[in-house]
Design brief:
The protein has 480 residues and is α/β, with parallel strands linked by helices. It has 18 helices and 14 strands. The radius of gyration is 24 Å and the shape is globular.
């Protein structure tokens, strides 16, 4: 109730002094978001990204950033040390900031009530308690993490009960809508910026203050304001809708393989309908990443909590279809290789959940490799961005026999080494470079029949068939 926004004239004019901004969490969201805001805010902002992970902060301050995003490296190097800083001094950055972004991990719970569905918001609560502890001035607290609906009310309760007398907090919801691999592009030219706040004079002032930070480069008509409940739910709904489209086209790919239709032709035909459009109709081995599955499960838990069983079942089916697509593809590999993989070398191209990122969270490749390892296949894996430690960590989390993973999995840095002498090549990420290889050279090195399983429909199937490969692709019928 005591909150008032700091005065300013126009976001396009230079402010009297830089607006101090703190972002708690130096991950896939906080790092890129603040880097672009620093680039566009110039001398009007001073942004400090903080994290308790010393190695991560050291990486942000080095020549090798902890995450890969096209264009991010150049932006960080341009702004770092000028108006963009990375630090482990969490308390200090919070204390001096006017705006505090909370951008910490909210994974799916692995324990207790809501296990396997609800979001684990323990890090959000820890942030709230730290903010209350060190704050001696009014602040705008901004949820940037994907959070359950109602989290703003939880933050408000914790802050109000633990803050210094006379200190006021306004809580805003400002969800990210970034796609990994195009995060910088998405930030520079967003479809919309969504800001949710309390429908009160103080809440409106806080919304206007945050909006002014985005107005340095985002047209005002693209900044959408709502209440916090609508903003929080909009993030979950957006990801649920996108994942639903992926599962829908993947369900149709199974019908195509059974009937002789081609899912690519099908997607092109239905995508011409202006009511549907062509985006997210690329059939594949399934969706991955940190958001889709987590947010749908969060939606399922929310619906269950509201006693909306039919709604929960509806969204749960999107996950079921995704799991089915991964298992169906693995089964196809096994079946075509004469129902035995023991002692055979399988080349796996791609381990990240999509191209142009090194992120492996919920990557379909993890689970497909798990299925192939269950058949005692020897896997040689190549991905241009995924590090060996991450690859083995992911596989050992889903394969109970860690020694088996060590024995049967090899990560290589040369794609030709991965494919040389392999009984089959399995494409699990749509990296552009996979289209450029000398597949005649690969074919000549492989035992016959030589198989390529294109789980991303990214290769030239006609050219591969002309070389002699037995080509198997998602959404196309193969000969028995």
């Amino acid at each position: 109730k005591n909150f008032t926004a700091q005065p300013y004239t126009s976001p396009h004019d230079k402010m009297p002094e830089p607006v101090k901004i703190c972002c708690i969490g130096a991950g896939y969201v906080g790092g890129p978001t603040c880097s672009v805001m620093a680039l566009k805010g110039k001398d009007n902002v001073k942004i400090t990204v903080v994290d308790i992970n010393e190695a991560r902060i050291a990486a942000w301050n080095s020549d090798e950033l902890p995450i890969y995003e096209p264009g991010l490296d150049e932006i960080v190097k341009e702004c770092r040390g000028k108006n963009l800083f990375f630090s482990t001094d969490v308390a200090g950055a919070i204390a001096e900031a006017e705006l505090v972004f909370v951008s910490v991990n909210t994974p799916t719970k692995t324990y207790g009530i809501g296990k396997g569905r609800a979001a684990d918001v323990k890090y959000i609560e820890l942030c709230a308690r730290k903010i209350a502890e060190v704050s001696t001035s009014n602040k705008i607290i901004i949820e940037k993490s994907t959070v359950p609906s109602g989290t703003a009310q939880v933050l408000k309760a914790i802050l109000s009960e633990n803050c210094t007398a006379g200190v006021d907090f306004q809580i805003l919801s400002n969800p990210e809508f970034l796609a990994e691999g195009t995060a910088v592009k998405d930030l520079l030219n967003p479809d919309r910026v969504l800001i949710g706040g309390d429908p009160t004079p103080a809440g409106d002032a806080a919304v206007a203050r945050l909006s002014s930070m985005y107005e340095f480069w985002v047209p005002k008509e693209r900044i959408v304001t709502t209440n916090t409940w609508s903003s929080e739910l909009s993030k979950l709904a957006a990801n649920a809708f996108l994942a639903q489209r992926v599962s829908s086209i993947n369900a149709l790919s199974a019908i195509c393989e059974a009937t002789g239709a081609d899912v690519g032709e099908l997607a092109n035909a239905i995508g011409k309908d202006s009511r549907i459009g062509p985006k997210f109709l690329q059939s594949s081995v399934g969706f991955g990443g940190s958001c889709f599955q987590k947010d749908i499960l969060n939606m399922v838990y929310l619906a269950e909590s509201l006693n909306l069983r039919e709604v929960a079942d509806y969204w749960r089916q999107v996950i079921i279809m995704n799991d089915f697509q991964e298992r169906r593809f693995s089964t196809r590999v096994i079946k075509r290789l004469f129902n035995t993989l023991a002692g055979k070398k399988i080349a796996v191209l791609g381990f990240a959940f999509k191209k142009d990122t090194g992120d492996t969270r919920e990557s379909p490749a993890i689970y497909i490799c798990q299925h192939l390892l269950e058949e005692d296949a020897g896997l040689t894996i190549y991905d241009p961005k995924v590090k060996e430690e991450q690859m083995f960590k992911d596989l050992k989390e889903v394969c109970p026999d860690g020694a088996k993973v060590d024995r049967l999995v090899k990560r290589v840095t040369d794609p030709y080494e991965a494919m040389e002498g392999a009984h089959a090549v399995v494409v699990l990420t749509e990296w552009d470079e996979f289209r450029t290889y000398d597949y005649k050279r690969v074919y000549d090195s492989m035992p016959k029949p030589a198989f390529i399983f294109d789980g991303r429909r990214c290769l030239d199937h006609a050219a591969l068939s002309a070389i002699g490969f037995k080509v198997e692709a998602i959404g196309k019928k193969f000969e028995e």
